[in-house]
UniProtKB/TrEMBL annotation:
Residues in the signal sequence: 1-22
Name of the protein in question: UPF0319 protein PQR79_07605
Family assignment from sequence similarity: Belongs to the UPF0319 family.
UniProt keyword annotations, A-Z: Signal
Species in which this protein is naturally found: Shewanella metallivivens
Length: 222
């Protein structure tokens, strides 16, 4: 009898776990999350917790691209984009436009064009914004930044602890922080824009292992 009870409890826990994460979001290969519902993580295929109030999800991500323009190779890394939408028990797909020139990179960074669809191919309404930070971008604490963002009356704020009555609309909102220019690094001898250098340093810092991050900080403090 005890063995049966243990089995039943284990099965119930497994079913509850599966039902809580029965939805997913697929990002393009050139996009990675930096936050999922307030937790720092880097993913392209995201398991969504649909037990949150109204099934609301908050995904913060960056879009990376490489392209050739006017004979030079360029690397692009977007600002951190916040996407909030209501999820149900199904899979979702995020689509992003192609970046093929410096002008298209600048347009995307200024006003990101996103397309979110469900597994039937239907458009899904969402709210988007940017997670901006003034000054040096190296070693950003995204969890702390998003916590401050969510505690304020921002367009894509999210809270797992309470219901939100803000209507979900597919609009682009401008953050209250200063707008950072499109991050495009050109592989030539021209002096790079220091804002671009700062953002790319932050990108590679986040990619580095804890040991490499510590070594890098030690070099800066020398």
């Amino acid at each position: 009898m005890r063995l049966f009870i243990r089995f039943a409890l284990s099965l119930s826990a497994l079913i509850l776990c599966q039902s809580s994460f029965a939805a997913s979001l697929q990002l393009p290969n050139n996009a990675n999350t930096v936050l999922v519902n307030g937790v720092a993580t880097e993913q392209q295929h995201v398991a969504l917790d649909i037990t949150t109030p109204q099934g609301l999800q908050q995904i913060a991500f960056r879009y990376h691209a490489r392209f050739r323009d006017q004979g030079s190779q360029h690397s692009f890394s977007s600002d951190v984009i916040i996407l909030r939408f209501a999820a149900s028990d199904q899979d979702y797909q995020l689509a992003l436009p192609s970046i093929r020139s410096q002008s298209s990179a600048a347009r995307f960074n200024d006003s990101p064009a996103l397309t979110l669809t469900d597994q039937a191919g239907n458009a899904v309404e969402f709210t988007q914004d940017k997670l901006m930070k003034k000054g040096l971008q190296l070693g950003r604490d995204f969890e702390q930044e998003i916590a401050k963002y969510n505690n304020a009356a921002n367009p894509a704020s999210w809270s797992a602890a309470k219901e939100t009555t803000t209507p979900i609309t597919s609009t682009v909102s401008t953050s209250t922080a200063a707008t950072v220019p499109a991050t495009v690094i050109t592989d030539n001898t021209e002096q790079p824009n220091q804002a671009e250098v700062s953002t790319m340093l932050d990108y590679w810092y986040q990619k580095a292992s804890p040991q490499t991050q510590a070594e890098f900080k030690a070099r800066i403090n020398q």
